[in-house]
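Section 3.1 - Work completed
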Amino acid sequence: MIENSQLLYQCKDCSLRQLSTLIVHEDEFDPMCRNTVQLHFSKGETILKQGGRATNLLFLHRGVVKFSYRYDTGSNYIMTIITGPKLVGGANLFFRDINIFSLTAMEDCEVCMVDIEDFKGLALRNPTYVLAMIEQAMDMFQHSIFNFISLAHNHVNGRIATVLLYLWDHVYKDSEYKFTVSRKELAEFAACSHENVINTLSRFRREGLIEFEGKKIVILNHETLTEISKKG
């Protein structure tokens, strides 16, 4: 983690500012902005740790992060994967004083850490602003819930097809994307074994549904993958 003495982003161009100032006056938003810390996280670094105190509202400007939950048994489950720009740290803050999951950089990320006390002060004066931020925070939970539903009803083929399509549609937004998700992470996201992932990806490749080009995965047949995702 690197704290930047030079601003990574000018506050006037920030998506969070643009959203906020639709509801609150700029003079009210500016004090919170001045106390915000801009940080760079390298791939693999922990941004939030499960069980740690929730002291900041996080806004992801750039990069890809994973939300994961570690069970008492030691097993790890990826709830969802998110790309910026997006409010990513709000769900913890609205409901609990501790982080209910971990947030990890899957590639280099630029993040704004907004002091929670500054945010609460602004929110108390502007209830409509709270509702807008909750709506933004719930976006992450929506993807997590849909993923859980898919896992509950699909076999391994359907789960992995769903994850591949999700990464295309919501994270990389391209049929050809650099596969920054490891096989282990893919298994944690699809709730299956590492061996299941390797075998299924090999099968998809043999059937002409996907192809690998170095570190890139190319989706060749979106329609068939969608059918597999739906039918499991």
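Second construct:
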Amino acid sequence: MDDEEFEESMRKVNLIGGIIKDMSSKNEAKSKVGMLRAEELLGNGEKVWDESSLKTVHNGTKINRKAFEDLGKPKDEIPADAAGFMAHVERDAKQRSEAKKKEIKRSDYLKSMGNCEYRKGNYEKALIYYNQAIDVRKDSCVLFTNRALAKINLGLMDEVGEDCDRALRLNERSLNAVLYKAEALWWLGDIQTAKELLKTALKTHPDQTKRIQDYQNKLSNSR
């Protein structure tokens, strides 16, 4: 499961859970609020709600079974009562949260192995570990900048820019991403664009002026 799918699933879980909880409340006013929220969503055409999929149960509460099916649950696993449905939603949210934690733990382990190999100068092995870490988790800016640096050391300059761009989409203030992209462009012969990136970095990271200038001096002396 990638990060976008996880966030969308959690959004649905939170949305459905909140409304079902209100609708099944013993407090009449709160229950009415829940029904109004459900009707509002139905009126706005919210995708997680489907009029034809609503089912009336013994206590008069309506439950959107289609929404749970959208989360990948088989029909026979969806409880018919509000309390059971709510418990199922909460259990599903917990399972997804635990799965995400495992992804992060596995990714962090692979990243640490990659860092270890990088420090030894084993850039090929480091790249393999970073690739594996990114396969597990695609929402880490650091993983993409680490992989970009490994590629620089392997001379894979034409692949560096994409990793840096992905890192910047995750964290637009990543200085490493800017520096590594500038270095790759420099070696690819696009020195003007590289200089422009470094010039912009000086404006956006005034506290890192010395580092940026040292980086540019290193590039200038390398050709």
